[in-house]
Amino acid sequence: MLYRIISISLLITFFTGCASAAPQGSDGGYKAKRGTQKPYKIDGKWYSPVESSYGFEESGLASWYGRDFHGKKTSNGETYDMYAMTAAHKTLPMNTYVRVVRLDDGRETVVRVNDRGPFVRGRIIDLSYTAAKKLGIDEQGTARVKIFALGDKSGDRLIKRNYDSGSFYIQVGAFTVKENALRLRDQLKREYGAAMISNFYNKGSTFYRVRIGPIKGLDQIKGLLNRVERSIEGSPFIVAD
Question: Residues 14, 218, 7, 187: what is their CA dihedral angle, to the nearest 10 degrees?
């Protein structure tokens, strides 16, 4: 039996699946750009922002958030404007520009990531009201989309980032009891061939994060994640080394 991820602290509960208020993590908050790249935990699940976005693609549900969050702080410290072309994503670097394509009718738009979320299973991006309206999902609430990271903007240029190099892991659980982490690691080694424990220190406590890998290449790790999601309890996710 696999162990569930242990909650470290009680954070914000998100009823709409977005993170319009800056989520707090191990450093107490993400007020600076550098802080938004640190691992954080929402509702018992760890998220590890990726260092680069070039080549990143993802399919799933798009949702949107509007007036209830208008004027509040986003995760990178900006003020959320429901009429701007922005979005929330769980792991992409802040200021990544993303092309969002609606799968049923082909409509598309480009948004800039300035927030974290949505924290609802199956949803991959939370759009501003205006972006959702351009895609025609402002009334129905959600739609299946595919997103493509374009890069970061510097002046008038988009700077593409390399997402193909380096090692990737799938994080399956995090424990405060080392023996529990060791048992899960050994089980994952038997099932997937490679697993390890990464220690994480927070306010005097040690957390043992259990990960499958390392795996070279984004396509390979995505395929493995699909397999892992079908076979275990919990919410595994990809971590870039």
Answer: 140
Q: How far is CA 142 from the centre of its chain?
A: 18
Residue type, 84: A
Copy the structure tokens of residue 100. 């969002």
What tokens appear for 238 in the block? 């990809």
What gap in Å lies between CA 229 and CA 241, rounded to an integer? 20
Which one, of 207, 129, 232, 214, lies nearest residue 165 by Cα?
Answer: 214
Write down the residue that tokens 């129905």 correspond to: 140
Tokens 């993590």 sit at which residue?
25
* DSSP character string of 40-63: EEETTEEE---S--TT-EEEEEEE
What's the DSSP call for residue 123? E
Residue 234 corresponds to which tokens in the numbers above? 């919990």
> pLDDT digit string (tens) for 105-151?
888 888 999 999 999 888 999 999 999 999 999 988 999 999 988 87
The torsion region of residue 55 among left (phi > 0), alpha (psi -120 to 50) and beta comes to left
Contact between residue 134 and residue 150 where contact means Cβ atoms under 8 Å apart: no
Q: Which helix (H) or strand (E) holds 182?
A: helix 178-192
Indicate yes or no: pTM above 0.85.
no
226 and 177 Cβ atoms separated by less than 8 Å: no
CB 100 within 8 A of CB 110: yes
Taking residue 201's Cβ as centre, other Cβ atoms within 10 Å add up to 9
